[in-house]
TrEMBL record:
<keyword id="KW-0233">DNA recombination</keyword>
<dbReference type="GO" id="GO:0032196">
    <property type="term" value="P:transposition"/>
</dbReference>
<feature type="domain" description="Probable transposase IS891/IS1136/IS1341">
    <location>
        <begin position="175"/>
        <end position="288"/>
    </location>
</feature>
<dbReference type="GO" id="GO:0003677">
    <property type="term" value="F:DNA binding"/>
</dbReference>
<dbReference type="GO" id="GO:0006310">
    <property type="term" value="P:DNA recombination"/>
</dbReference>
<dbReference type="Pfam" id="PF07282">
    <property type="entry name" value="Cas12f1-like_TNB"/>
</dbReference>
<protein>
    <recommendedName>
        <fullName>Transposase</fullName>
    </recommendedName>
</protein>
<keyword id="KW-0238">DNA-binding</keyword>
<dbReference type="Pfam" id="PF01385">
    <property type="entry name" value="OrfB_IS605"/>
</dbReference>
<dbReference type="InterPro" id="IPR001959">
    <property type="entry name" value="Transposase"/>
</dbReference>
<comment type="similarity">
    <text>In the C-terminal section; belongs to the transposase 35 family.</text>
</comment>
<keyword id="KW-0815">Transposition</keyword>
<dbReference type="InterPro" id="IPR010095">
    <property type="entry name" value="Cas12f1-like_TNB"/>
</dbReference>
<feature type="domain" description="Cas12f1-like TNB">
    <location>
        <begin position="305"/>
        <end position="369"/>
    </location>
</feature>
């Protein structure tokens, strides 16, 4: 079985939001109490507590402490499970040692089996404003209104997670268990596309189309700097500090949502038109570390190649189509026609010239064709010139306001 997450925006009353924040603080204190109990046990007996011992300790603490009784019993056990998983990752060398959690950073609660109920699903509005809403009840917290933008099997839900974002927005995530078998394509792959990722052009396709890099973080950097300076002047954990922190989180959240929206729409566009996706197997961390200057490293972070590649792969795999990663070494310097390496090519050179056969082509487009050849796919022809992807608004590149992109 594989687990798939369905995430929906949730709305609540001010009273329910306050109850949620109170329970998050209680869960944070319970986590820290378990951490101290684990440290004392190790100092006294030189052993660590097992998963069952931690879960039972969480229940015992809940019975004794009125503050912890505000939590649902299974939510309290899930806090113990979270601490156990963090400790196991540390012992395996995958994470740092667990430390005391800060209340303003403990932002999610999990209902693993029961304690939740989804009801009153209905369609509201008309035309473009038509939406599907539902009512979710979480035990010990209250009711939330969900915006259901897609269907999911309620009978197969294994966990429900309510998350309070740093910006103040609330999301509910349903974890659904699905069979491991993947959907197979109904026909043999016919069309393949090679995608070259870059900084100037976010994605260049082997058919000659390209998508300019909108650089959302770089464009919002001035606003982020102003908000960050305002936050640094506030007293830590004061009301004004929390307000300033929420404003900064909203700006970062918009950049993240803008980027993911663009990636998913690009992936859906390619997955509808092509059967095979050929990507270069980039080592993004190595590229960032070798960045010549601060600005280049910032643009590499802003481009988020790893996230873009993961989204593109997911869009193709979801439709039962093929994804072929190929080595990225010398893709920009290799000639598509004869395979000669142009060792004198630099980052400033935007046109590739082959020293052997004289072949000349845009360097990004040449790299796409090289990727296809390495994947043993022959393109139908070499595009004469580059052309942009469909109108930018359809790919989410319009933002209203003074900081907008057009």
């Amino acid at each position: 079985m594989r687990v798939r997450a369905h995430r929906f925006r949730a709305y609540s009353s001010k009273t329910t939001a306050r109850v949620l924040k109170t329970q998050l603080e209680a869960a944070c204190k319970l986590y820290n109490t378990l951490l101290h109990a684990e440290q004392e046990e190790y100092e006294r007996n030189k052993r660590t507590m097992s998963r069952n011992e931690l879960r039972q300790l969480a229940l015992d603490l809940r019975k004794k402490n009125p503050e912890f009784q505000a939590l649902h019993s299974q939510v309290a056990q899930q806090v113990a499970e979270r601490f156990y998983q963090a400790r196991e990752r540390f012992l395996e060398g995958l994470a740092n040692k667990s430390k005391n959690k800060k209340p303003h950073k403990f932002l999610s609660l999990v209902y693993p089996q029961s304690g939740w109920k989804l009801s009153n699903a209905r369609d509201v509005g008309q035309g473009k404003s038509k939406k599907r809403k539902a009512r979710l009840y979480l035990s010990k917290i209250g009711f939330f209104t969900l915006i259901l933008h897609r269907e999911f099997p309620e009978s197969q839900v294994s966990q429900v997670c309510v998350k309070l974002e740093p910006s103040g927005r609330i999301h509910v995530i349903f974890l659904v268990e699905e069979p491991e078998t993947q959907v197979q394509a109904s026909k043999e792959p016919v069309k393949a596309v090679g995608v070259d990722l870059g900084i100037a052009r976010l994605a260049t396709l082997s058919d000659g189309r390209f998508l300019d890099n909108p650089r959302p973080l770089e464009r919002a950097l001035d606003r982020i700097r102003v908000l960050q300076r305002a936050l640094s002047r506030k007293k830590f954990l004061s009301k004004n500090w929390l307000k300033a922190k929420r404003k900064l989180a909203k700006e970062h959240e918009h950049v993240k949502d803008f980027r993911r929206d663009l990636f998913f729409k690009l992936g859906a566009l390619l997955a509808q038109e092509y059967d095979v996706l050929v990507l270069e197997d980039l080592n993004v961390q190595d590229l960032i570390q070798k960045g010549e200057n601060k600005k280049r490293r910032l643009r590499l972070y802003d481009s988020s190649f790893s996230e873009l590649r993961a989204v593109l792969e997911w869009q193709f795999v979801k439709r039962g189509k093929l994804v072929l990663p190929v080595p990225s070494y010398n893709t920009s310097r290799e000639c598509f026609l004869c395979g000669e390496i142009n060792k004198g090519l630099t980052l400033k050179d935007r046109v590739f010239h082959c020293p052997r056969c004289g072949f000349a082509l845009d360097r990004d487009l040449n790299a796409c064709l090289v990727l296809l050849r390495r994947a043993e796919w022959v393109p139908p022809g070499v595009p004469a010139k580059l052309r942009p992807l469909p109108p930018l608004p359809s790919l989410g590149l319009v933002r209203r306001g003074r900081q907008g992109w057009l």
